[in-house]
Amino acid sequence: MKAIASAPAKMILFGEHSVVYGEPAIAGAVNKRAYVEIKKSYNDKSILKSYDLNFEVELDTRNKSYILKKGKPGIIRYILEAFYRVHDHSPIVMTLSSEIPIGSGLGSSAAVTVATLAALYRYHNIRFNKKSLAHDAHMVEQAVQGVASPLDTLVSTYGGLVYLSRNKTFEPFRVNFNAPFVVGYTNKHGNTGKMVKDVRSLKNRNSKVINPVITAMGNLTNYAKQAILKQDYSKIGELMNINHGFLDVLGVNTVELSRMVYAARECGAIGSKITGAGGGGSIIALCPGKSKEVARGIAKEDNVLQVNFTKRGVSSRV
Ligand code: MEV
């Protein structure tokens, strides 16, 4: 028996970090995916491996730990957290592959978590639906990161472009928003858990300054929702630039990210900002008619992806 699942990466347009404090956010699934395959092992060992991420571990299911055989499995904490919530002791071989750069701010951990849980549920014939899967994946992210909003796992499960409101209602956008985005990612991996904790301590140390910034980020996201509904690209771009300034205030910017954000604007992007947790990871640039120029302009030392939103969320089968 073999179970297969895949889930998409996500791009946060507005509201990273402020969403952790209950403010709204807008994010969409993009056309890069993580894939997980689970099959029975024909010896008594359980193996987790990835050819493209170049690692292999032997799972010690009795002690809920692992023995490293090869490489550095950066994403493994999410996989193990998902695995030990669902799996029994039967030996399996689990293979992960990912088109999403790990630690890039594009939701690799959420996509891997959602795909791992869906594959495990299929393998064990456990009933699930998108609501329960998004919930369980959020629990895994929270267990690994300490604090996590439900945003990344929701988007990776349901797909599409979504608005998460202040009271955590989740609304898909009905408009067809096909704006061209360029993603530039640095070689430095962002650590979401650490970045979220750093913002929290900045906020605790300077609450009277940072609390209004977080509220303003939420108000900005609500303006952005209206701009997206009207397909008003120049307003969206302006709001992205303001949002980047707020993220800088929260201390999640880096020299490399800044360089790409401003290079993108110089090459014709109408808006550019960090996407995701920051501290490394990626920037996004909205650049209608200028994608090639922007990609070339920011790619000198960095990696570039041209991504599109996709309606396709998690998919799984046996
Ligand atoms: C990470 O992709 C987004 C953050 O807002 C954290 C979260 O929402 O859990 C930084």
From TrEMBL:
Which GO molecular function annotations are given, in alphabetical order? Answer: ATP binding; magnesium ion binding; mevalonate kinase activity
Q: What Gene3D superfamilies does its record include?
A: 3.30.230.10, GHMP kinase, C-terminal domain (3.30.70.890)
What cellular component GO annotations does this protein have?
cytosol
Question: What keyword terms does UniProt attach to this protein?
Answer: ATP-binding, Cytoplasm, Isoprene biosynthesis, Kinase, Lipid biosynthesis, Lipid metabolism, Magnesium, Nucleotide-binding, Transferase
Where does the record place the GHMP kinase C-terminal domain? 225-299
Q: Does the keyword Protein transport apply?
A: no
Catalytic activity as recorded in UniProt: (R)-mevalonate + ATP = (R)-5-phosphomevalonate + ADP + H(+)
Q: Which GO terms describe its biological process?
A: isopentenyl diphosphate biosynthetic process, mevalonate pathway
Where, by residue number, does ATP bind?
101-111
Q: Where are the transmembrane segments?
A: none
- PROSITE patterns in UniProt: GHMP_KINASES_ATP
Indicate the segments forming the GHMP kinase N-terminal domain, all copies: 78-160
Where do the catalytic residues lie? Answer: 152
Q: Name one Pfam family in it.
A: GHMP_kinases_C
Subcellular location, principal = cytoplasm
- Keyword check for Magnesium, yes or no: yes
Q: Which cofactor does it need?
A: Mg(2+)
Which InterPro entries does this entry report, sorted A to Z? Answer: GHMP_kinase_C_dom, GHMP_kinase_C_sf, GHMP_kinase_N_dom, GHMP_knse_ATP-bd_CS, Mev_gal_kin, Mevalonate_kinase_arc, Ribosomal_Su5_D2-typ_SF, Ribsml_uS5_D2-typ_fold_subgr
Q: In which pathway does it act?
A: Isoprenoid biosynthesis; isopentenyl diphosphate biosynthesis via mevalonate pathway; isopentenyl diphosphate from (R)-mevalonate: step 1/3
Q: Where in the cell is it found?
A: Cytoplasm
What family is this? Belongs to the GHMP kinase family. Mevalonate kinase subfamily.
Functional note: Catalyzes the phosphorylation of (R)-mevalonate (MVA) to (R)-mevalonate 5-phosphate (MVAP). Functions in the mevalonate (MVA) pathway leading to isopentenyl diphosphate (IPP), a key precursor for the biosynthesis of isoprenoid compounds such as archaeal membrane lipids.
Protein name per its UniProtKB record:
Mevalonate kinase
| Upper lineage | Archaea, Methanobacteriati, Methanobacteriota, Methanomada group, Methanobacteria
